[in-house]
Amino acid sequence: MSKQTRLRKNDIVPLTITGYTAQGSGVGHYDGMAVFVPKAAEGDCLQVRILKVGKTYAYGKIESITVPSKDRVEPDCPQFTKCGGCVFRHISYAAECRAKEQRVRDAIQRIAGLDPKLVGPIAAAPFSDRYRNKAQFPLGRDAEGKFTAGFYALHSHRIVPCKDCRLQPAVFAKAVCAVGEWQRESGESIYEERTGKGVLRHLYLREAMSSGTIMVCLVINGNSVRREDRLVSLLRKQVPGLCSVILNRNSKNTNVILGKQFRLLWGTSFLVDTLCGLKFSISPQSFYQVNRDQAEVLYRIAKRFAGLTAKETLLDLYCGTGTIGLSMADQAERLIGVEVVPAAVEDARKNAERNHIKNAEFRCGDAPQIAEQFQQQGLVPDVIVLDPPRKGCGPALVHTAASMMPSRIVYVSCDPATLARDLKTFAGEGYFLRQAVPVDLFPRTAHVECVA
Predict the structure, then answer these.
(1) How far from 292 is each of 124, 165, 280, 330, 402, CA to CA, in Å?
(2) What is the pLDDT at residue 58?
(3) Which of 10, 77, 177, 273 sits most deeply, having the most CB atoms within 10 A of its CB?
(4) Helices H / strands E in the chain, number of each
(5) How confident is the prediction for the chain on average, in pLDDT?
(6) Is the pLDDT higher at 367 or at 366?
């Protein structure tokens, strides 16, 4: 781009959107410079106001739509442009799935240097709404000082009021209303981040989709709240399927939602859900896939890729509460799970016991370190399953896993870019991608899972 035509802030330029970023913004090019535009759709012809200019890219916002994309639909949520959750409610779900599949193909080709044809068709969700089994509502006050609950605006802690999110079960809205009614009756104070004072911080909800049972966990800055009996009474009256009411203490100045201390006010301290034919207990702090139905799809693909014959030792690294490994245990001779979070390891052991699985054992520790210990001890797993956090495995764990010489490695990823990076490293260790399948666990958001 010449100096004469260099973009400047507040310039309005014509732009055709040709794709999407990993965050779901539209991408177009003006005089060779990439311009990122939120809420744009591939195929849009736009007039875009430039908001920020970097050396090789710029950010803009839609000033007007000259020619709309054929993928555009009318957003069905009034908070779509305000909330930091959904990014794809302005395009059809089919178009969203194409974009996510293309994102995985692009990463495999550009970062891993592999044939994008190795990426199979995306496993789309049967429902793009009401699929989440967990919600975390920050609590605050509106402009009139009244109780409000909702979600944070993008890149901020400003609460966008929303009682009923379309991604979540409709029953969650009843819990929000019940807590709001109790707050107005009791006059319980609401936490303010600026001062660190006030009691009510978050409303944390979970549902066991197989049974429709509901957990309500109120996160507070303190040990108790006013009129606890009335809170329980309103929730029991207004929330169908309620089976658990819990207080969680979090008095730290932190963005972490849950504290470490819990107190049961009514009901049971956990939910029980069914996943892949197995029963799993879910406490407030348990990791559990938020889209149960699509998690089953993902686990079935992973199990097929593992190719177990009931004779293998299966090593499940980053096992969490054991869901993936336990779903495969019936076709393995021995299952060894590794997880760094002690509470998750304890949950995994309980889940194995609950399902009468005798061939599973779980170790607590950092996955790369434990894997290296196994290697030094001469453990030779036949199959390794990896389900790392967003940052991926990294070179050290890839090297250790490959050094164990398993016959197969199954990689479950929540970030196509780090998956592709690790696949390139695996190739250097002699392990090559045979197939990857994107799975949409988070419709209407930018996130996409993948099994390789």
Answers:
(1) 14, 18, 11, 20, 31
(2) 96
(3) 273
(4) 9, 22
(5) 94
(6) 366
CA separation for the pair 47, 44 (Å, rounded): 10
pLDDT in tens, 160-171: 888 899 999 999
Using 50, 70 and 90 to split pLDDT, how confident is the model at 2?
A: very low
Q: Which of 162, 393, 414, 450 is catalytic?
A: 414
Q: Per-domain residue ranges for the chain?
A: 3-67, 134-275, 291-451
- The CATH number of 291-451, from 3.30.210.10, 3.30.365.10, 3.40.50.150, 3.40.50.10610, is 3.40.50.150
Q: pTM higher than 0.85 for the full model? A: yes
Q: How many CA atoms lie within 13 A of 40 on its CB side?
A: 34
Q: How far apart are CA 383 and CA 276, in angstroms?
A: 20
| One-letter amino acid for residue 113 of the chain | G
Q: Is 66 in contact with 45 (CB distance < 8 Å)?
A: yes
Q: How far apart are CA 303 and CA 358, in angstroms?
A: 19
Q: Do domains 3-67 and 134-275 have the same CATH topology?
A: yes
Matching residue, tokens 């590794």: 338
A 10 A CB-CB count for 221 gives 20
**For residues 90 and 81, what is the distance between their CA atoms, to the nearest angstrom?**
10
Mean pLDDT within 264-291: 93
* 414 given a catalytic annotation: yes
| Domain over 3-67 is classified CATH 2.60.120.330 | no
284 contacts: CB under 8 Å, gap ≥ 6: 204, 206, 215, 217, 246, 248, 258, 262
Q: 383-406, pLDDT tens digit by residue?
A: 999 999 999 999 999 999 999 999
